[in-house]
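>> received
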Amino acid sequence: MVKEILQLESTNANDFKNEIVKDITQALKGYATNMLNPDNETLLTREETAKLLSVSLVTLWDWTKKDIIPAYRIGNKVRYKKSEVLKSLNQKNQFGQL
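>> returned
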């Protein structure tokens, strides 16, 4: 691990904090816009959805059973719309309100 030194001049702590908050806000807005694009209409398998959410298949099944995340049965296969999975997470997000 290489140690680097960062030296800031001609700024105070409050201005520096405001710049960081502004940049993070812009990045999050870009991320939110990206989540709502038409590519999110793709159907995901159970494994892909569990990987996207970083949860086990058992947890995904439990959330599906509790109607937290909507699922579609196509024949004997279960599929999830990516946009609906992401929307479900946004609705359950307690930290989305600033």
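>> Residues 20 and 72 are 41 Å apart (CA to CA).
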